[in-house]
Amino acid sequence: MRLGHSRTRHAGFRISTLALAIAASAVALAEEPVLLEHVEVVGQAASIDKALQDQRRSDSVTSVVHADGIGQLPDDNAAEALQRIPGLSVERDQGEGRFVSVRGIGPDLNAVTINGTLVPAPESDRRAVALDVLPAELVQSLSVVKTLTPDMDANSLGGTVQVESLSAFDHDGLFYSLSSEASYNDKSDQTSPKFSGAISERFSLGDGIDNFGVAAALSWQQRDFVSDNLETGGAWDFSDGARLEELEQRAYDIRRERTGLGLNFDYKPDDESSYYLRTLYSRYKDTETRNAAGVEFADAQLPGETGEAEGWRELKSREETQQIQSYVFGGERSLGLWTVSGQLGYSKASEKTPEGIAGATFEGNDDFAGVGFGGTRKPKLSVGSAFYDPANFTLDEVEWEKQKTTDTEKNIKLDLARDYEMSGYAAQAKFGGKLSRRKKDNDLEAWVYEDLGDFGLTDEQLNLGQFVRGELDYGLGRFGPGISAKAIERLLAGLNKSDFYDEEESRINDFKMSEDINAAYLMNSVDVDDWRFIAGVRYEGTEFEAKGTGLRDDVYESIDSCKRYDHWLPGLHARYQLDEHTQIRAAWTHSVVRPTFGQLAPGFVIDGDEASFGNPDLKPLESSNFDLGIERYLGRAGVVSAFAFYKDIDNFVYATDLAGSGAWVDFSEANTFANGSSAKLYGIELAYSQKFDWLPAPWNGLLLGANATFSRSDARIEGQGSRRSIDLPNQSDQVGNLTLGWENDKLSLRLAANYKSRYLAEVAAVDDKAHDLYADSQLFVDFSAGYFLSDNLQLKFEAQNLTDESYYVYTGNRRYNAQYEEYGPTYSLGLTFTHF
């Protein structure tokens, strides 16, 4: 049946896909189920009935996010679409979904692939890929593989996010779609545009019919918004009650521009072979102006107390551009009982920050009197009018920086499979290998403009009054004047830049790292009556090298660290057909994940008895994983499932202070990263989805989907002669989704709620549990509606963050602020024209 052939299919997708496919915890929707031999979570966007039938034939436990018949995911970007999947939660930045956490495992410990090749990370210190750089229109499907078979890369602890882009074979004949949208942010009172389009067509080459396909997609979006922030950074003194040491207000003015382009080719010369070329380009430009105003109390104060305090005002103004490119060429050919497939992949990620103001600080000329605050969750600053008078502040220093990070990954892999019989049972042996070469470079150049009076500038030239741009609109209290970036740039332009070069910052933050992985595997699958078994082993050999610069008591040292290690990773998968509608799945797998590049950074600074440094000698994280689950099909488009999981993790990485031990016994501070001995993570995922089409009208249009994940973790850290237990960072004990929808042949409605409980965001010193930072629980509620004005033209309305949810981080106890930030709801209205 042609995808999206009828108007009913068009109208129904928006609800049925999210409510039924995404909400099902383990709903298998594989395109080629015979080849999928893993537990994965995917997104499916065509018919739910067809998807559930695919699941019943597949070897995977799957739920999917898939582009619908009009070429769009159900959310604005890949990260927000994935948050509907059981066991997944999203880390948000300025209210937008960015990084994905799987089963409580932090984003840096998960992998992202685009069309089968690894996506490197644009940020200098991370492995995690911010999925908001991928516009939804470029994505055909998203899957999260939760258990790995030996023929897959073993580099994910929680899951591997697989992104598949548009193919001409996703549609019959000519397909094109054009969309325009305007969104309005309630807090910023600004409207932002968005345009996108996709087209695909099949052609006949040689003697074939419709055997060559071309697909292209383009997306552009500009979003203008603001956010208000209030933070203490955890600066509470708990030795005598709960006294606050400092408080800062921040006002953000942000413009984000996304551009995405995909161009794909598919060629199927005969029934035995197929070839493809997948290309994807994404550009994400973030322009941010951050004004800050803060105080540091002379003596830590309780709420309601007043006293003297130092005051400051600060400006950060920077432009940051991230780019991701991915090119994948591959093919598959059947040769009798043999199947041969191969792939060449190249991907590159970069982040470039041109020269700009990393921080311009104006210090108060004198201490301010009668300064206090009220409340501890959202402490409100209480200060006299002198704090809001620009004449009372003088420019102290300007940090000026530029930075460029590149991360490239090249790979080649070959897989061979042979079908045969084992004692009369159908079986397949599969083996192959992969070579991967990854390089990550970072180059930072820094200047610090300070002691400006020594360079001929007068007090009048440095007074804040020369740089103000009017009173700022700040939703959490009075803020005072904003600072003009242009005025600061004009001042610096008259100075000799070379006089202010910061050699220390510029050299110790530069690095070059390489990570070469050679892998091979052997696996076998066999069907025995109602059982299917998959067993095998994967080998991965890794060679890691890091080059950088350290500073020891004002003397620079070159660093070249090289490390090699090997892993043998066995795996066993089983599936049992209990009855016609019920099946049980089980898996025992192993994975190995390398520490982040920030943790492995070779640079260091040693000054007297204080030191801070990365640790290129960190061991990789190793995990033994167990999964067991059952799924029951409930007729048309219905499933209920339950899956339990357990992970035994060795060598997890955490920040620590090694002062007083080993080589650092005489140091008062030695901040670095270390391997913990072991950690455990276990939990259960529950899911239910149903379309109530057997009910009388209008109830036959009702859709319901729900899932919840309950998990626990335990890890032990040590340092400075003590040890304690912690939760794994970024792990929420509860994650849940509830989707309620209704549809007919013209109108579709969806109300979706996403919840995650608190999680440990940052670990303090081993002996200072009270200053651990926790991100509070969040509940986001979104609404969407679509109405077909004609068979090809759809009007859409969406409302995001209807609960006006904020981001709140607290210090040890929920009463004590570390960071509070508000974003407000966003509303959008758009039109989509589609031709099938």
Secondary structure elements and pairings:
Layout: H1 7-22, E1 40-42, H2 48-57, E2 65-66, H3 78-82, E3 88-93, E4 96-102, E5 111-114, E6 117-118, E7 139-145, E8 160-165, E9 175-185, E10 190-203, E11 212-231, E12 236-237, E13 243-270, E14 273-301, E15 306-335, E16 338-364, E17 368-374, E18 380-382, E19 393-422, E20 425-450, H4 459-462, E21 468-471, E22 481-483, H5 485-493, H6 503-508, E23 511-528, E24 531-552, E25 555-579, E26 582-593, H7 597-600, E27 604-607, E28 610-613, E29 621-633, E30 639-650, E31 653-657, E32 669-675, E33 678-691, E34 702-719, E35 722-726, E36 734-743, E37 747-756, E38 759-762, E39 773-775, E40 778-788, E41 793-800, E42 807-811, E43 813-822, E44 826-835
Parallel strand pairs: 5-8, 24-27, 28-32
Antiparallel strand pairs: 1-7, 2-7, 3-4, 5-6, 7-8, 9-10, 9-44, 10-11, 11-13, 11-43, 12-13, 13-14, 14-15, 15-16, 15-17, 16-19, 17-18, 19-20, 20-23, 21-22, 23-24, 24-25, 25-26, 26-29, 27-28, 29-30, 30-33, 31-32, 33-34, 34-35, 34-36, 36-37, 37-40, 38-39, 39-42, 40-41, 41-44, 42-43
Give a summary of the structure in a few sentences:
The protein is mainly β and 836 residues long. The protein contains 7 helices and 44 strands. The strands form 4 sheets. The protein has a 22-stranded antiparallel barrel.
Verbal overview:
This protein has 836 residues and is mostly beta strands. The protein has one domain: TonB-dependent receptor, beta-barrel domain (Maltoporin, Chain A, Beta Barrel), CATH 2.40.170.20. It has seven helices and 44 strands. The strands form four sheets. The protein has a 22-stranded antiparallel β-barrel. A hairpin with a 2-residue loop joins β27 and β28. It starts with 6 loop residues before the first helix and ends with a strand. Residues 55-160 form the TonB-dependent receptor plug domain.
